[in-house]
Amino acid sequence: MNKTLLATLLLSAIFSSTSFAAEQSISQTAAYTPSEPLVLTPVVTEENDASLAEEAPKFDDTMHYFVGVTSGMADLSLDVNAGADKLQSPDASGLFGADIGFYTAGGKGRIYYSYQKMSGESDHNDKKAIDTDVSLHLVSADYIFRADKTINPFIGAHVGYMIADSKGDGYGSYKQSGELLGVQAGVAWRMSDHFTAEMGARHSATQSKEQEAWSGDNQKGTKSDLKSITAFYMSANYRF
To answer: pLDDT tens digits for 145-176?
Structure first.
């Protein structure tokens, strides 16, 4: 009888304590109103920073070989004297060519070989008198500014060898060859690690000292001298 009474009193005490705790929890929850909205802040770690940096586009500036094609216009400074007559220099002529070379490590320089071909016509008394074909073999070196950017201005110098052939009815033929020295400048658009487009100007001066006589049917004692070549060009390059 005593044990039964004791168990009943113990159970009543446990139920009373549980009910009081539940009522206190409900009253506290009802009384809480957040003063600011809940904002989720992303956690930034070193791993996240590294992954974001890897996603940013970067150019590969190790040493690379490249090939390219070139086209444009050339102005030939050619003096032709046929007796008492002086023929005008050829009109601006088209040029085409090809380049092969390499970019240095870091992308701030390049060295390349260029072959260029061009032709022009010299008039006399408003009639075509002489055709001139010129071939250039050039070795160039350029310094590239802003190598890590998309737009890259550049300047450079070149040495080379020129072969010029001129022919005209009643004038005979003439061949001039020799060394060239010159400079170039331009701007390149680096579209990707592999493709680059550029435009520029190149001036080459021949090292001849005086006019030379033509050969063949040359009753007028024609002499000529190709002094310089100025070219304006556009190129497309592929680096690999």
So the answer is: 998 899 999 999 999 999 999 888 777 888 88
For residues 223 and 204, give the distance between their C-alpha atoms in angstroms, rounded to a whole number. 21
Q: Quickly tell me which residue has 């400048």 as its tokens.
A: 185
Alpha carbon separation from 126 to 73, 87, 220, 221 (Å, rounded): 22, 10, 19, 21
Angstrom distance (rounded) from CA 187 to CA 173: 39
Contact 188, 144 (CB under 8 A): yes
Q: How far are the Cα atoms of 59, 146, 231 from residue 115, in angstroms, in the given order?
A: 28, 27, 13
Query: What's the rounded mean pLDDT across residues 114-135?
Result: 85
pLDDT tens across 72-89, in order? 999 988 887 777 777 777
Question: Which DSSP helix (H) or strand (E) runs through 7?
Answer: helix 2-31
What is the pTM assigned to this prediction? 0.72
Range 23-33 burial, b when 16+ CB lie within 10 A, else e: eeeeeeeeeee
H helix or E strand, kind and range, residue 6: helix 2-31
The rounded distance, in Å, linking the Cα atoms of 234 and 230 is 14
